[in-house]
Specification:
Elements lengths: L9 H15 L6 H8 L3 H8 L2 H14 L4 H8 L3 H16 L9 H4 L9 H27 L9 H20 L4 H11 L1 H11 L1
Helix pairs in contact: 1-2, 1-4, 5-6, 5-8, 6-9, 6-10, 8-9
Protein name: TetR/AcrR family transcriptional regulator
InterPro entries: DNA-bd_HTH_TetR-type_CS, Homeodomain-like_sf, HTH_TetR, Tet_transcr_reg_TetR-rel_C_sf, TetR_C
GO molecular function: DNA binding
Length: about 200
Amino acid sequence: MAGRPREFDRDQALRNARDVFWRRGFEATSMSDLVEAMGIASARIYAAFGSKEALFREAVALYEAADGAFADVALAGESSARDAIERMLRDAVELYTLPGRPQGCMVVSSATNCSPDNDGIREWLAGHRRNRTQSIIERLEQAVRCGELPARTDVTSLGDCYATLLHGLSVQARDGIAKARLLAMIPMALAALDAAVDKAQR
């Protein structure tokens, strides 16, 4: 009589899958890569998660709920927009350059280019990035309502600037730019926001 298949820790298997997708991206990750990382046969992966795409979407959700939640925490957790933006950028550098972990942002790097068969994944991730941009703009809009920023501040352009910087930090980190260099750039990046705050205080 054959023994029952060894039970596996679904949460740990998902974390392992997340790290593979984070490091290699969606298309470049093969089922054999996932089998090796998760420690279970492909049939059990399909049984537990449904498909490679479903597994990837669940892995992204895990990333955004844990490591990738830093931006939401920063934007909601600081009393001023200036401090929130600075914390968001600094926490991004810390995460994106963490030793022994995949470099950069999973949502930025996992599927910027895909074959037509995976356009759905590419657009889904693009939607996540657009949502992040919007969350930054909304935090700046809040700063205008509170009087931290002048009423005529172009919050859309300013928000686009910091979203572009946030996503660019991911690319720089994956390219091996050192943490110290990335952190050194942040005070210069905040100059536009500092100028707007100063204007509101005059």
